[in-house]
Design goal:
14 strands, four-stranded antiparallel β-sheet, globular, Arylsulfatase, C-terminal domain, ten-stranded mixed β-sheet, alpha/beta, about 20% strand, Alkaline Phosphatase, subunit A
Length: about 450
Amino acid sequence: MDNFIVIVPDDMERAAIDGRDSKGRAWMPFLHKLTVRARKFTRAIYTCPICTPSRVSLFTGRLPHNNDIFSNPNGYQNFLDNNLDVGSWPQVLRAAGTHQTALHGKSLNVYTGAPMGDMWNRWDIVYTGNVTQFEVNRTGVEVLVTGHYQAKWLADRAETTIKRCVAAGKPFAIVLTPTAPHEPFIPDAPHAGLYAAEPFAPAAKPNFNPLNVTNKPAYVQNAVRLTPEEVVTLRADWRKAREKSRSIDDMIRQMHSIVGKLGIMGKTHFIIYADNGYLWNAHRMPDKGRPYQESCRNVLYWIGPGVKPGYDDRLVGGLDIGPTILELAGLEAPAVMDGRSLVPLLKGETPAAWRNVMLAHGMRVTGDSEPPVGGSMAGISPGVEWRSIQMRDYVYTNYHGEIEAYDLKSDPYEMNNLGPAYDTEGARAGYEERITALLAASGRAEVEPIENA
């Protein structure tokens, strides 16, 4: 029986995961070494690119509208109130008795201390503090941790879980969720200052803090450009975020090392996928939660037995991780899961059909007060501010009735908004019909044919 280690960085864009610094060195040097064994999915789409909704989709394998969670406030309690632990892939594994399940790190926003239903055999849930002093619920016991760097402490706890499971002869499924490189940008001591003089890469992109946004929706036009002084502050934060990210690479190295020492490399899968990307003021947007590619797309690494290394540009997402793990564990994914198994892709196979589109949602941001109107936005819940059809090389987004559309092949930085070409309901019809159909669908049997069409 295979083991699974899922590592979920917090607020880490693709450029920080698989990119390089100004001297050509990988930001994540150990992960880079593992790529020769990895299936690297280069078009991994976030169904809602912000912490809680993204993590809930990862756990449940469902689209946000079927989870009814679109935002961070009270995310943990909403998860419990909606009984979303039932049918989640950790709960299915635990109920089947095939694996010991564990969560080490951040769970969902506004953690209340209550267990996450029946998902985990053991847990170390971090819920207050920062990376050097933090409170943890350790399988029901409250503990204040001081004198340890959070990512390293969590890796040590996960290592203990792995050793105990191996000693007991039990397969394991572990999720590691450090709050890195999420702010506050405090790197671990060995990496502090490593990138103190690194050129500010986001500022070199044409979509950084743009002067002219007249072709963008009103919410972008209303966003104030950063001052030179604010750019300097952002640059300092970005450098420290890159230094803090190295603790993720250290975590991957430690997990890989202990698996090797215990002789279980041949039956252990490593999955690395952040909870969302990060904008760093692309399109004047400060962080995440937007349909732009820095926020809404990332890379997903899968390393393990039977995995054919290589690049794969088909559309995938966090909601596919659960169905894949369950198939590899010899279990059937619950019918309510909207995601699909990646097993054929991991083997290097070409399925007869695969999805051509994915539906993404965005949460309402404080200060956005205008009511959503028009097309698929009519009657939308107040917790959502946009809906988007994400395609391989194209994206269509309805934001409060305003349309954004980009040809990503010719316009990878999303500078030329094609939305004005869709200024009539007739021109929008095909995209809006696809959105409406996906919103009405629940479970793979209903979702898959719409995505594949």
